[in-house]
Queue: 2 jobs
Job 1
Amino acid sequence: MKDNAPAKKILIVDDEPDILEFLQYNLRKEGYEVVSANDGRHAIEVAEREKPNLIILDIMMPELDGVETCRILRSRKEFAATPVAFLTARDEDFSQITALDVGGDDYITKPIKPRVLISRINALLRRSSRMDDDDREAIELSDLVIDKQKVLVFRGQQAIELPRKEFEILWLLASKPGRVFTREEIFDKIWGSDVIVGNRTIDVHIRKLRERLGEEYIKTMKGIGYKFDF
């Protein structure tokens, strides 16, 4: 991190004190500001108060598990674009798919080496500013206005709220209308090469986008990928 840049704030949520201590030590050593919570309900309170730049969530926790905590946070506008990494001892495929489908950006299994953890966190924070590299505040195509600042899509007078991943996919496709994005490109730009997601995940997001916006905007190029058309 740059010496003159303000420290990014990370919220760590885990019910194991040893894990919290391990994460806090290594992230603070890297220059991050760290706040913590030991269950999902407390995590939501801390997130609302501290407004972290990134959240690390354990999955198995008392009171409220990590998946449900992520679902609640993603439903609130102020956390729609906050990167969320799941850190857990569970490595089953269904757990990873569920965690990513509710809006998780990465799925990190325990145990993990400190340098690998820091690398994943740094990559997440870099990717979270991806849309900021595009100077446009909004994209207007056909009868849609895709507003980056409000994280909303307007169709005429109707405002449509989208989960973060769906909004990012739509912004990516709409940023270059007519251009075909392969599945690999979408995976890499939205989730990053370090995160493994299956075809089912992107299909679910595309299907939900079509349900919310209509079938006419996103076209499937069979065997290749998707494009925004109007």
Note: The CA atoms of residues 86 and 107 lie 5 Å apart.
Job 2
Amino acid sequence: MQLVKLLNIFHNSKKVDTSDMNNNEFTRLIDSISECPGFILRHEFFNSAVLMPIVEIGGELHFLFEKRAMNIRQEGEICFPGGRFDPDFDSSYQDTAIRETIEELGITEDDIKISKQLGILVAPMGVAVEAFIGEIIDYDSLNLEIDLAEVEKIFTIPIEYFRKNKPTKYHVRIQVNSGYTDENGNYIELLPVKKLGLPEKYSNPWRGRKQHVLVYEGMEDTIWGITAELISEFISKLERANR
């Protein structure tokens, strides 16, 4: 009966026949909702995609990594090829992963063979990453022309290394703030707690909790954060499949 009351208000009708829940308006309401829903408020996120490139070197499978150039966002960090979803160029997140890999490594679409999607990682800093697993075909014979404006260098690490060496788990503390102080010392109010009559406690940081951060240490370049999470998920699925 609660659903009937809700629909009565929603449709602004005086009477709802409880024996006919398949009426036209209800059907249109339900049909308007996607059968394959994504996560709510996705448009508020930085939506991106990466390719986890696998290459064969000397009969052994390796991940191919990039080190970001020093003049771009998150400079010097280790990552997989990828970037932001662009609706002007991409019809899907897989298209994003392929396009960014082509641009960053200087290869063609024919050099990439997508195997499957690993999953979607939603990071607490407002980033959503769709990760795809793919093979770089005939890697040894390719003449890579990396985009030095974005990529300082590329390198590979055997997948077996990550099976034998687990990541270290560190933590950061994440809090929600109703405002912040900018670089000039000015306080910027984002949520007017007093004006809205919200509980005073929300004037101060809240929801402080620990969030784990995975780190693969002991290499020339530390691999951490989102890239480490994707590797760990890949290895976990690989090990479960081999049990």
Note: The longest strand covers residues 46-57.
